[in-house]
Amino acid sequence: MTTAASHPALSHPEGFAKRLRHLTAEYLFALVLLISRIFQFRRNPRPRMFFRFFLGVAGAAMVVLPLGLGAGFVPAIAGLVMLICAILLPPAKPGANASDIAHKLGAVAIVSGGRYQRGSSPSVSVQLFVGSEHICALDGRLQPILEIPVGRISTIGAEQSKESGSLRITWANHTAEFSYRGIFAGRFARAAETAIRGVMRPALPQRRAAGA
Fold this sequence. Notes:
7-stranded antiparallel sheet, PH-domain like, disordered C terminus, globular, alpha+beta, 47% helix, disordered N terminus
């Protein structure tokens, strides 16, 4: 009886640790997505200006308030670093940016495409611009290397192993596979699959045969 009763007590810490690891991974993945969104508008003057303004105001508040309330010097030092970063952050570079290209392509979402290899060419890192009519894969220079018509997609699926993932899309007589690496590989693959499924039209219901 004692041994049987002790199993739940032993499994409880293991279950808690597993949930904690999962929650930590989700928060880290959300942080990675946030940072990638920040870098997406690094050439967009208006969002960059608002980001610098927010960073400067938040940094100044963290410098003044903790010292006034006697809360210690650690938040003040962090605020000072934020304020210096806001001042030293270089202005936006002119040229095309992801937001402008997304608007031009009619994309409703931009997701990571991992790496894509076309034929015998070396694999390149790509972003997927997901639109209601087409999925466009663009390389690091924002040059298009693949276009997939949404209406002709027959199958799509994300797969995950330990530290790798893949997204396979089939349309007409073509198949494209995007590979992901790292601890968030599976999450990036599933995020891309979810974004693409969001613009795919549901299959029309089959008509019943006459007299059925």
